[in-house]
Amino acid sequence: MSEEETAFEFPCTFPLKVMGSHDEAFESEVLALVRDHVGEPGEEAIQRRASRNGRYLSLTVTFTATSKAQLDDLYRALNASDRVLMTL
């Protein structure tokens, strides 16, 4: 596959999972970055799951992805954040 090729056909529904510390700052920053790249996801598009001990939070935000470039830019922005531990 070339750099522009991807297994996805756009537009497509895309579930983005982001993990970090279970605090309000993490969630606020992640949602702000998502809004910057895909618009307002809406509360129904956000799933929250705390780790067993409550120390970490996983956010899954489902949105309509419009291009590989959009996803790449969003992943770069999230991974540049000190609050984000992992993105899937």
TrEMBL record:
Cited SUPFAM superfamilies: YbeD/HP0495-like
Any Gene Ontology CC annotation: cytosol
Listed InterPro entries: UPF0250_YbeD-like, YbeD-like_sf
The organism's place on the tree of life at top rank: Bacteria
Pfam families listed in its UniProt record: DUF493 (PF04359)
Family: Belongs to the UPF0250 family.
PANTHER family: UPF0250 PROTEIN YBED
HAMAP family hit by this protein: UPF0250
Name the UniProt record assigns to this protein: UPF0250 protein SAMN05660831_01950
Species, as recorded: Thiohalospira halophila DSM 15071
High-level lineage: Bacteria, Pseudomonadati, Pseudomonadota, Gammaproteobacteria, Thiohalospirales
